[in-house]
Amino acid sequence: MHQTGRKPKLLKDYAAPDYLIEEVDLDVALAPKAARVASRLRLRPNPKVATGGRPLVLNGEGLTLESLALDGKPLSPKDYELKDGSLTIPRVPAQPFTLEIVTLCDPEANTALSGLYLSRGTYCTQCEPEGFRRISYFIDRPDVLAVYTVRIEAERATTPVLLSNGNPVAQGDIPGTGRHFAVWHDPFPKPSYLFALVGGNLASVPDSFVTASGRKVALAIYVEPGKEDRCAWAMESLKRAMRWDEERFGREYDLDVFNIVAVSDFNMGAMENKGLNIFNTRYVLAKPESATDTDYQGIEAVIAHEYFHNWT
Fold it and tell me: Whole-prediction pTM value?
């Protein structure tokens, strides 16, 4: 990742964002060298800030901008300023408006493992702290919370599993293309650093959890094929954490599904993305023949830690 010129962000310098994003519709067409991301953002001026016609500044890194439209009207290069690290639109409406952005990024070349990357045939994201700006232009800061609907498409033969935050709402084939799609919706507003997307040839270990109120939650751990037999303790640890949160704090899990993905090339130990936790394999995979007691303790602790981010 490019580090030159980065400065620490200090609390004394904090200023509220000029604009808020209420809803995000993403359409992500996965491809190794040119993933196409069509983003539709519903924005409004921040009522706590006297914007006074201030420009809209979006963060972006390593992106190719294909098109930009404001309230359905295409913008030409003279209508915005594009430079390394940002996209600025000098004039935007004083009332709620819609911005449509189409960009390309290169998952295969993304060796920083921040944003959307492709490693060992699996597409994966890491957006904390500022990785979403490597996926699409955005107000990429933790105090901007939005509701996300995400459509993902990819080649079915190489990428049969398509995951994102929230609940699955649709899936199917795209006739005549060899590609398929999945749509996910997360009804809970979240910051961009909690966005997650995974696509690949992964095996799943399914299970379920019945909440205190009797609601059934579908659970699954996704791993590289052949490693399914090493997920039992991670699944048990997840269910124990879910039960403990209910019994100790009265907090039930609030989505219909909870997925964990374990990948070898993940630059964090684990990440608490809403409904789609992503882990390095060392904190998920274990079996008695090769794992120590310390390994088992570490898996239980990290699984619980990431799950508890949902509430407590």
Answer: 0.96
